[in-house]
């Protein structure tokens, strides 16, 4: 790809990745044109007169040949201009082509019709020279901004050690399939998502999750593609490879983000199209006013008109927003934040409310089993065994806590049959040919097995911040497991910082009113909604919106999907090794609510850069076009085409450099 833009190209549409190869193409052309400009400079009439040497009659033909060769290097601009015209999105390449083409054609005509006695070979060639260098700087700067897709692709190793029987074979990572078993040695990267079959090692997952602390991995633990095995060997059975792996899903997120535009970009696109029309009309009026009305030589009017076209090329306007979003995307990815829809950046910065799904976000979500109450003759360990056996197929945090309790107490589990997850209530399954029901009171109450005394006992155990899980068969209540959760230490700082940013905080929870109230008071939360089922959460988000609030919903990306969709911006937090591509507009890999604060801070800083770049790009053209049209000639200000080209390129560099200051932001210190 020789040119650095896709879609409408150069000023209309978002830039694609300006790779290192693209920059080298422009740099090579620039140096060739630089070499050709030397003889063209020497055969120019104005230069010869200034230095006092005489030109031979064939000098103009030398100039014609050299300028024609240089003009050939500008044909890439015409190719993209034709694409813009076909798309009816007239942008920078349209202006460049008109400016270069009109100047070169006028010069050729002058060469073959001596009476015109003027040519712009040096000026147009200088313009092409500056444009090539400007494009090189853009490509180089954009490449330096970082291509997030390429950065993510680098996380995977090119080769992997696949185990076939007792033998190991080295294969390309692309050839791996689900179910393959691979060996990962110390210092090597894990090629795909999977589960540890054998071995123990500390693994660095920072490139994926942003967490710097190594994580110990042993048998049955899940591992993430791209993470690094630090100090041991692991035999891993692959569960998700290629586009289904964590890396593949991250690439989908980034690709989706690159295909969206913030509102500021759409404004810039519109401005670029309008600017093209304004420049063409202004250049024609310039010729008419100076040559027809004011009686100046036609050459003078054409010179000013060409300068208008050159200086109006919206390089800066075209890059004002895309360069910011490119760097913002890269910065976010490095901090474990994946913004699927860049249009949401401007919504995030204006948030009135952040609504958290309480469990596992503001609280640890690590429910410890505090007590087991039995009914009848069943022992506590038997209650735990049945409950943990049922929860083997559950991904809920409460189920995982029960499993941890069983593991800690060395309780052997049975294999459940006919397992079913009842959303917001619990689980159902068969263990040792007996039907069991494990969950909250609404699940058990539907079965009509509770006595008045048992119902009172459940109510008593539910007081405070306890969470209860009830086990029953079809005939009777068997036992109650009481659990409790803790507020994350960082949650206090999160709520405080959100308030400092002018954002209110609410929580949604299925917990009892008194539990929700207690957490809300401790954290100084503005609003809470208790005893809410997952499918009902969106109603409370909608309620806040109907009161005129812009709402960010923070949830796990699975049970909270309706609420995430209803919110102005849905944020899936704690996705970790299972990046939920479909859930929400933003995905945070870490289960850390502070990342929500970082997202808000980033959105505000990104918006400031967008506004600054738009202000510079539009302000530059508002002043430059009248100057190029000769409005300030009576005050001694006259812009020649080559000076206009230089100013145009400088404006581009300023916009890019301003955007790149975003790279200095350290979100981890927020």
TrEMBL record:
Transmembrane segments: 30-52, 58-78, 90-114, 120-137, 271-293, 299-321, 614-637, 643-662
Example of a GO MF term: ATP binding
Entry keyword annotation includes Transmembrane helix: yes
Main localization (coarse): membrane
Cellular component, GO, one term: endomembrane system
Domain of life: Bacteria
Key words of the record: ATP-binding, Cell membrane, Membrane, Metal-binding, Nucleotide-binding, Translocase, Transmembrane, Transmembrane helix
PANTHER family listed in its UniProt record: ATP7, ISOFORM B, P-TYPE CU(+) TRANSPORTER
Organism: Candidatus Zambryskibacteria bacterium CG_4_9_14_3_um_filter_40_16
Membrane topology listed for this record: Multi-pass membrane protein
Domain P-type ATPase A: start-end pairs: 154-254
Coiled-coil stretches: none
Assigned protein family: Belongs to the cation transport ATPase (P-type) (TC 3.A.3) family. Type IB subfamily.
Gene Ontology BP, a term: copper ion homeostasis
Keyword Membrane set for record: yes
Listed name of the protein: Copper-translocating P-type ATPase
One Pfam family per UniProt: Hydrolase
Location relative to the cell: Cell membrane; Endomembrane system
């Amino acid at each position: 790809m020789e040119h650095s833009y896709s879609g409408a190209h150069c000023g209309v549409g978002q830039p694609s990745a300006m790779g290192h190869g693209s920059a080298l193409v422009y740099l090579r052309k620039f140096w060739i044109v630089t070499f050709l400009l030397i003889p063209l400079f020497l055969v120019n009439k104005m230069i010869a007169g200034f230095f006092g040497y005489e030109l031979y009659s064939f000098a103009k033909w030398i100039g014609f040949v050299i300028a024609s060769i240089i003009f050939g290097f500008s044909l890439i601009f015409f190719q993209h201009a034709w694409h813009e015209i076909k798309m009816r999105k007239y942008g920078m390449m349209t202006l460049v082509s008109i400016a270069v083409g009109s100047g070169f054609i006028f010069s050729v005509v002058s060469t073959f019709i001596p009476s015109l006695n003027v040519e712009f070979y040096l000026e147009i060639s200088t313009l092409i020279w500056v444009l090539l260098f400007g494009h090189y700087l853009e490509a180089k700067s954009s490449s330096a901004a970082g291509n997030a897709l390429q950065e993510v692709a680098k996380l995977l190793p090119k080769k992997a050690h696949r185990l076939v029987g007792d033998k190991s074979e080295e294969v390309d990572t692309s050839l791996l399939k689900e179910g393959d078993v691979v060996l990962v040695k110390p210092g090597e990267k894990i090629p795909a998502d999977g589960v540890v079959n054998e071995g123990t090692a500390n693994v660095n997952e920072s490139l994926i999750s942003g967490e710097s602390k190594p994580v110990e991995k042993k048998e049955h633990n899940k591992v993430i593609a791209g993470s690094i095995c630090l100090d041991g060997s692991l035999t891993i059975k692959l569960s998700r490879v290629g586009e289904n792996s964590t890396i593949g899903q991250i690439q989908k997120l980034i690709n989706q983000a690159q295909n969206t535009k913030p509102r500021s970009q759409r404004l810039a696109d519109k401005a670029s199209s309008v600017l093209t029309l304004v420049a063409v009309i202004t250049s024609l009026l310039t010729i008419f006013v100076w040559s027809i009305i004011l009686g100046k030589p036609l050459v003078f009017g054409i010179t000013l008109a060409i300068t208008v076209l050159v200086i109006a090329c919206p390089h800066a306007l075209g890059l004002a927003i895309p360069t910011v979003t490119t760097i913002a995307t890269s910065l976010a990815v490095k901090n474990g934040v994946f913004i699927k829809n860049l249009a949401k950046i401007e919504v995030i910065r204006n948030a009135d409310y952040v609504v958290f799904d309480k469990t596992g976000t503001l609280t640890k979500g690590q429910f410890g089993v505090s007590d087991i109450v039995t009914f009848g003759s069943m022992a506590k360990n038997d209650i735990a065994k049945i409950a943990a056996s049922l929860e083997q197929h559950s991904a809920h945090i409460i189920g995982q806590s029960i499993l941890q309790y069983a593991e800690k107490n060395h309780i052997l589990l049975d294999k459940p049959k006919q397992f079913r997850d009842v959303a917001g209530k619990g689980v159902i399954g068969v263990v040792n040919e007996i039907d069991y029901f494990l969950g909250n009171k609404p699940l058990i109450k539907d079965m009509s097995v509770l006595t008045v005394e048992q119902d009172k006992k459940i109510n008593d155990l539910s007081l405070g911040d306890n969470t209860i899980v009830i086990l029953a068969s079809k005939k009777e209540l068997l036992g109650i497991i009481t659990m409790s959760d803790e507020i994350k230490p960082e949650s206090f700082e999160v709520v405080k910082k959100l308030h400092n940013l002018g954002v209110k905080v609410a929580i949604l929870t299925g917990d009892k009113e008194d539990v929700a109230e207690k957490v809300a008071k401790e954290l100084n939360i503005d609003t809470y909604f208790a005893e809410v089922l997952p499918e009902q959460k969106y109603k409370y988000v909608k309620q806040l919106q109907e009161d005129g609030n812009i709402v960010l919903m923070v949830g796990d990306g699975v049970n909270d999907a309706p609420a995430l969709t209803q919110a102005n911006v849905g944020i899936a937090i704690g996705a970790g090794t299972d990046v939920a591509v479909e859930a929400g507009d933003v995905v945070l890999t870490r289960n850390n609510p502070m990342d929500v604060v970082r997202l808000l801070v980033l959105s505000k800083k990104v918006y400031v850069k967008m506004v600054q770049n738009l202000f510079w790009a539009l302000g530059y053209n508002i002043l430059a076009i009248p100057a190029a049209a000769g409005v300030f000639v009576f005050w001694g200000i006259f812009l020649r085409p080559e000076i206009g080209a230089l100013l145009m390129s400088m404006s581009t560099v300023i916009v890019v450099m301003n955007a790149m200051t975003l790279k200095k932001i350290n979100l981890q210190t927020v």
